[in-house]
Amino acid sequence: MSNNHNQIDNVSLIPLGGVGEIGKNMMVVEVEDEILIVDAGIMFPEDDLLGIDLVIPDITYLKKNQERIKGIVLTHGHLDHIGALPYILKEINVPVYGTKLTLGLLRGKLKEHGVLSDSYLKHVYPGHSVEIGQNFNVEFIRVNHSIADACALAIHTPAGVLVYASDFKFDQTPTNGQMADIHRLAELGDEGVLALFSDSTNAERPGYTMSEKVVGESIDEIFSNARGRIIVASFASNIDRIQQFIDSAFENNRKIAVTGRSMINNVHIAKELGYLNIPDGMLVDMQDLSGLNDDKIVLITTGSQGEPMAALTRMARGDHRHINIQDGDTVVVSARAIPGNERSVGRTINKLLKRGAEVIYESVSGVHVSGHASQEELKLMMNLVQPKFFVPVHGEYRHLHRHANLAKEVGIPEENIFITEPGNVLEFSNSNGQTAGSVKAGRVLVDGLGVGDVGNIVLRDRRLLSQDGILIVVVTIDKKGKNVAGPDIISRGFVYVRESEALISAATSRVENALEECEENNVTEWSVLKSKIKNALGSFIYHKIKRRPMILPIIMEV
Predict the structure, then answer these.
(1) 394 marked as part of a ligand binding site
(2) What SUPFAM superfamilies does UniProt report for this protein, alphabetically (predicted)?
(3) Last residue of a domain, one of 422, 451, 480
């Protein structure tokens, strides 16, 4: 720590994502002229982001202040906390600190993106801390979550201690036997905590979140009753859950095979790092399944969210390379639909049932429990840590709002509770907390290899195209602006030309009239011609069939 900490009495925090939304978690912590970044996640696109693959935080502010950044610390290995790093580390070269599994999963992601990583990935054990720059000492505190090696962070700064507890629950009987370090959280509370940032995902759920152990019992029961093949779908990152599948398969004398790219990658990484224990000879290749009896097979797959290209979805559609769903198969969907994915999950379940499988999913059985704290655990976290200021994070506005109410219930004064949004600058000192301005924040859209090249105008065009289609008008004019060929009208996604000949020929004569008018008035400026064509055609078509297709005039000169 720097010696002048007597003068440093305030710390600034800027969320660049993860508040007012689920995903793209990223928090910037500033003390004096040093910056520490907590997490860097992605968000999956909502339905209105047509064709977009991922959404990442806008890091304009970080790029401007690059030389002040001392490091990035990670809470755990889920993509909504580490997924943006392949994009960000191309712009900002700083060390990244995390636990073993978190860095293992990150290394896999960086390799996929061709980012060289090992030089700046720094491994920290839960229960240990690390000095970063002059002003930060970051302590990794074990918590329970739906992925191993998840930690809350205690960030010790000259202005006070910040506890960042994004994505946690208190599981009294965790399957890996590793309890959350409640003692350390209580000690920090006794020593004094300036601010707590806490997970709001389940702030609307009363009571406690059930233990992961409950899932193990349900899975054991399903596995011992199933007569045919068993296909289980889960999040590829939920290593403890995958271990439970393996244990149950072993008990019931079944072999396991793994399908789906992210599942294969994660099982490989977790096995190498010692987080998965697979007895020798149990893991078989997909190609070798045909040689086994149905009652000897467990298949672990991706697709619990109904993603179009995931393995389970392909099985449901009937176009998976190795597996055709048949009567007698038992399919277990061991995950809850992420908000927004309910319809695609429902569609997948319907298709599997039609193909003759028995499908077991969360709403009808105990095959999934949440990795996030419910109301009583959220209150427990606040009571352990006893923060002066409280900021709910990791949730949509309604979740943050409910969490803020819980904070009032446990006695945190209302003026010390801050519901914030991306880009807002929070300033805390021992004497007061306030919102002090804002920085540029928002979303950057990733489409294929393009990062940020699809903006609102492109999205608006995609929306228009998807709703009303496009009409392309091709006209050839000579030097004097006289129409020598065309107009030809091509329609895509608007009407089928052969069945709408009358409409298209009426539209063609509208364009001809507009061009004649331009010729009479000696208008040869292309931009004017184009807007005349657009106006003539647009109003005519809306008048005729109440649709507004995109109109794209193309003018060629001979």
Answers:
(1) yes
(2) Metallo-hydrolase/oxidoreductase
(3) 451
Model pLDDT for residues 504-547, shown as the tens digit of each residue: 888 888 888 888 887 777 777 778 888 888 888 888 888 887 88
Cα separation values, 45 from 82, 292, 425, 464, Å = 16, 40, 26, 18
pLDDT value at position 401?
A: 98
Token duo for residue 176? 């890996």
What is the predicted pLDDT for the residue at 231? 96
- If asked whether residues 430 and 414 sit together in one domain, one would say yes
- Stretch 2-10: mean pLDDT, rounded? 62
Cβ-in-10-Å burial (0-12, 13-18, 19+) of 136 comes to buried
Q: How far apart are CA 189 and CA 397, in angstroms?
A: 27
From 199, 240, 247, 329, the catalytic residue: 199
Q: Does 123 show up as a binding residue in the annotation?
A: no
Task: Give percent of the chain above pLDDT 90.
Answer: 65
Q: Is 76 annotated as a binding residue?
A: yes
199 as an active site residue: the answer is yes
Note whether 47 and 74 are same-domain residues.
yes
Residue 401 annotated as lining a ligand binding site: no
Select from 348, 364, 380 the last residue of a domain.
364
pLDDT digits (tens, 9 = 90+) for 389-409: 999 999 999 999 999 999 999
Catalytic residue among 156, 320, 372, 399: 372
Answer yes or no: is 450 a known binding residue. no
Q: pLDDT digits over 79-103, tens only?
A: 999 999 999 999 998 999 999 999 9
Query: Is residue 247 flagged as an active site residue?
Result: no
Q: Do 313 and 359 reside in the same domain of the chain?
A: yes
Sign of CA dihedral 461, 462, 465, 470: positive
Give the domain range for residue 251: 212-364
CA 118/CA 36 separation, integer angstroms? 20
